[in-house]
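Minutes, project check-in
Item: structure for the 543-residue chain
Input as provided by the requester:
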Amino acid sequence: MVKTELSYNPYLMETVVKFNDQPPKINSIIEKYRDKKLQEWVDLLPQVFRDEMNGYGFDFYFSGTESDYELIKSSFKKAGVTDNEVAFFYKNELEEPVIKNKRIYDVFSWLDAHPNRRFDYKAFKDDNKEILDSPYSFITINGNKISSISLCDEKIDIENIDNVNELTTTDLTNTPIVMFIDSHDLNRNKRELRSIICRDDISSRQLFFCISAELNRPQIERIISDLGIHTPNIINDVNDAVISDYFEVYPLTEYITKVLGILKGTISKLQADVDEENEKSKIVNSGIHRKIDSLENDINTLKNADDLFNQRDNLIIPTEYVSSIKSFFFKISEWRKKKTKTTNMDEAIAMATEFNTMLDKFYSEFVAEIDSASVAKSAEIDQLFGKWFSDTKMDPDFEPTVDFNYEAKEYITPSLTEKFMDIKTEQYIVRKASLFDRLKNNADANNDKVMEVTYTYEAWRTLAVEEYGPICQRVIDNWTETLTKYYAVLANVYHNRIHQIIKQKTEEKQIVSKQLSQDEQLLQNDMDWLSQINDKLHLIERG
């Protein structure tokens, strides 16, 4: 099957699309959406990808947050695309905005606890006071003085507005706005709605409408629709989940992006100054610096390898899983395909027994195929992780010890012979006259009715799929869970070993650095500090 791939990082506003491992053509419509949030074009995504691929029938690999992954799958489902037409795979997982926001706070805590002579943290906070101190806005119109709201673990102060004209000069871009509609004056409602909805800095996504129970809700919704919002966000109160979802995708993510930008900008300037001084220092103390550079190269190589284990692709389930279960169902569909039914009891019993025996055989073959594919996948994982580690050229004798036990599960397969025999249709038919009756011209004999029992093989095949389908899926699910756990456990073993080596190399570097002058040691401390803050920012960007 052909392959498509979408990678979306909302914190860097980075969208990467590939079709069969190739970037889109220069005139591709994808370019139109590359700089937009995924949520703004996700409903168009199925059609865009279908047009690019000249139809469905492809695998879709996604890298990004889990919520965005579910959003994409939902968009295809709404478009009527089946799992047989597009198979989805979650490749690289990116942390959700709530987690990223906590990491931002961790960085600030770290900066408080680890001052650096080159970084004036107080001045940095003063220069960016507006972003750091009050990053979020939330507005209610006619909200009866609601003081605050909790969104994504953030306590947000609310600005209550009684007259929409107060907002004339306020920039409302991405600001959540809740309009409480409780007036029976329809003309007033229309005026207020129009003045907000028609603004260029407001989108329908950020508007939420809380309609009083005393009003004619369908009537108010029609007014909103007539003003251009055909599917308005109708809520019951400010704690509605739809507001929290919007806040996470827009204001919270926007804050993370802004903070990353100002931190990276400041740190990159410091990095340039330190690098320049370090180059001069290398000339004076070339021997010592060669040792330091070698150790730093080792540390960076280890960090890059650690990135692979931390940001590894999510486990892609063996394709044999899908092909094996399809093969199992195909074998069922092919059993006695040229026969439709029987009305002979003895033949029915023989066929039911035969089919039950064949199902046992088909299932055994299926389990053997799944087991074989799973063992092969575990060996593939071993090989891939081993290569990532061996490429560092550190500790070539390391053999990972994995504390992991596979628990094989035996599933009881049903005996369906009796159930097959229970699936039948019964009807009375006119008994065919015998030769004796016809010779005697026995009219009564021609009207005799007898019970005819019919056994339909297609009904048996349908029952077999219904009974064995869930069992086969449990076999697959068990192996999927097992491989996923093994994947994570083995990666963590390598991760821990890499961190041990990094710690050793760092200690060696500190010993070598002590041979430098006091000023040069301070310079090395600056470089170490920059390395740590850059690691933290990288984790927020890509983790």
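Outcome recorded: The chain has a mean pLDDT of 87.
No further action items on this chain.
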